[in-house]
Structure formats: C-alpha cells, structure tokens
Design brief:
The protein is an alpha+beta fold. Strand 1 and strand 2 form a beta hairpin. The chain is globular, with a radius of gyration of 18 Å.
C-alpha cells in the first residue's frame, strides 16, 4: 500500500516524508474507509443524516448502538471510523457549545462549532505524544439555513450539499451526485439518503439504518424511527 520510505517516516506524527506525506494521517483515513457508511443530505429547508448499523450479532441490543450524536439541539453529527474517537470529539464539541450558551445566552452558530471541531482535530496531527483521530465526521446543522460539513482526520473542513463517509464512499457519492436535486422537500431528502445507503450495501447484508433530520421551524433535530424509514 505504501512505498519503502514508509518505515522511516511513519513512526512520528510530526515528521513529513520527502514527498510531503504524513503517514499517520493516511493510516487514520484507512480506518475511516473501513467504517460503516454514513450520509448527509441538504434539502430546500431541511438537512438529513443517515447511517448504517451493521447487525453483527443477534445478541446485541440494537438501541444501544448509536451512530448519530447530538452536539447541540440544532447540530447533529455522524461518524465513520473509530466510534470511540468520535465520542471523544463529540464530548469536546458539546462542552464548547455549552460554554458559548453560557457566555452569550444563545445557541452556537453552526459554522462556529464546525470550525472548532476541525481545529481540534487538526491539533492532533501537529504535536508529538498524540495520534490523529481515526474518524471522519459529517456535521449537520440549521440556524439561518440547513448546512452540512465533512471533517477529515487531517482536520480538513469542506461544506457539502450531499456527502458520504465510510465504506463504499466512491459508489455512494456517485449515486448522490447523480440523483441530488436542488430544492428537495424533506421527504425527498430522506428518500435520497436512505436509497443511497442501500445502494452501497451488499444484497444479503444484515444492517439497520439510523437517521435524524431538522427542518425550518423546528427547534431541534428529530430521530427517525426505523419503521418510518421502511417506506423509502
């Protein structure tokens, strides 16, 4: 997967290879590729997150496994990669959002919390004694309008109308690009997210789908029950 120069430059996060690569960050991105598919889609006046939950064992209590996390009432995130790393990032983001509310008596703007998370993730690629987070995040929020951002293990931050992270990203992104339309209703946005997930799954895979959304006029995200998703 990597050349012979890998061994000399992959032990310290702060050392670049001669061709400008940080191997530890690239390893973190490999962890993301192995994660379950997660999707975000922006509609006319709504934003949707959806994620795959693999059913590895009938002994697992399905409700105990969460892929979508609440950062604030109007901000949700979904992760692909090492979910324990995602929980750590979410905890830091929640604390930052709470501090903003105490200081300014208002909900934190979506752009502010996204930038904070991206900056925090980037710090872990810059100093010794730590490792990069092995996770990518899709952060969805709604303040003046619906918004969706992806944050990579490098700390790179990009805004999207529709995006996926995790396994089968290439195929899922191609499906989203082909089928995305501007001015989609909430129902159409949910339908696209769910159908894109199913497009990326193998025929006999055992899985369930978790989803949440927020639309204009709502004060917080709402989780969608699995039975409600069966119609899509």
């Amino acid at each position: 997967m990597y050349g012979a120069t890998q061994q000399a430059y992959d032990r310290a996060i702060t050392v670049f290879s001669p061709d400008g690569r940080l191997f530890q960050v690239e390893y973190a991105k490999e962890a993301v590729k192995r994660g379950a598919t997660s999707i975000g889609v922006v509609g006319k006046d709504s934003v949707v997150l959806a994620a795959v939950k693999h059913d590895y064992s009938k002994l697992v209590v399905n409700e105990s496994v969460r892929k979508i996390f609440e950062i604030d009432d109007h901000v949700n995130t979904v992760a692909a990669g090492l979910i324990a790393d995602a929980r750590k990032i979410v905890d830091m983001a929640r604390n930052h959002a709470d501090k903003h509310r105490v200081l300014y008596d208002e909900s934190i703007p979506v752009k502010n919390i996204v930038k904070y998370v991206a900056d925090t993730v980037q710090i872990y690629t810059q100093y010794g004694g730590a490792r990069p987070f092995g996770v990518s995040l899709l952060i969805a929020g709604y303040d003046d309008k619906p918004k969706l951002y992806e944050i990579e293990p490098s700390g790179a931050l990009t805004g999207y109308l529709a995006d996926s992270i995790g396994e089968n990203k290439k195929d899922v992104d191609a499906y989203l690009e082909k089928n995305y339309k501007e001015e989609m209703s909430l129902d159409e946005t949910l339908s696209l997210a769910v159908s894109a997930i199913r497009k990326g799954m193998t025929k006999n895979a055992n899985y369930s789908i978790e989803a949440s959304y927020m639309k204009k006029g709502m004060k917080s995200f709402k989780r969608v029950e699995e039975k409600e998703l069966e119609k899509y």
